[in-house]
Amino acid sequence: MDDRDVQMTMxxxxxxxxxxxxxxGPKSWAAVAGIETEFKNRYRFDPAxxxxxxxxxxxxxxxxxxxxxxxxxxxxxxxxxxxEALNAFLFKKTTGRDEVIPRERVSGAxxxxxxxxxxxxxxxxxxxxxxxxxxxxxxxxxxxxxxxWNLRQxxxxxxxxxxxxxxxxxxxxxxxxxxxxxxxNELGIDRYAGCYNHRKIRGGTSWSxxxxxxxxxxxAAPNGLRTRCPDALFCKPDYTDFLDIMEAHEWLPAIRLWGxxxxxxxRARLD
Length: 271
Ligand SMILES: [Zn+2]
Hints:
The chain is α+β, with helices and mostly antiparallel strands and 271 residues long. It has helices at 3-12, 26-38, 52-66, 80-95, 121-125, 130-134, 162-179, 181-187, 240-248, 254-257; strands at 136-147, 150-161, 191-192, 215-217, 252-253, 264-266. It has two domains: 3-95, no CATH class; 118-266, Muramoyl-pentapeptide Carboxypeptidase, domain 2, CATH 3.30.1380.
């Protein structure tokens, strides 16, 4: 994300009519201030006195949100949701159409009768929105995960669907017992990149598994939505046990389901 992206999204959302030159001058700041005033109830931090870059990121998130690209929380941090919302916006702006991201089943994709099929998730987990939210459970971890896009911040609690929560907690405890905290840190397995999120699937129109509370992401940047083996970091041998442990606890790695999006694990199998 750079300053041109901020200007472009602010212009597309109708807050800015200066140059798309990457120079954040008085016109850009006036637009940012206007956005902060209009959306202050949705900001998850106080932009007054914040770092300039965080205010710019938040303005971009507010604009992407208004334009319907689902960047997640307006928090001023560039995480995978912000990155992907921006990618979707730029694709549409450049080509005039929505990007379609294919997700074709890998042969030998894992499953298991206890795990709901993707086509059954609404019956098992509920309809996205209030129905799913009522059934979210907070799991407490006996150790901390780092927030992938803001590594000084940590999380010990994750909100996940009650039908998938025990399996996830058991999986993460088993991962920690296997690797230990130092090795997890070194490999980036402790970089938590999001779980429950009420949004549509990237490059598609159906609900994301995240909207059912049955998906979690780790270490997004080297395990991107479009990155396949052997380029994705989690394809490397050091991570095989991590994937095996998650899979053994019914949290299936996307890289073994549709061969990309290695950051993503879900308690749902392909149809
Ligand atoms: Zn995901």
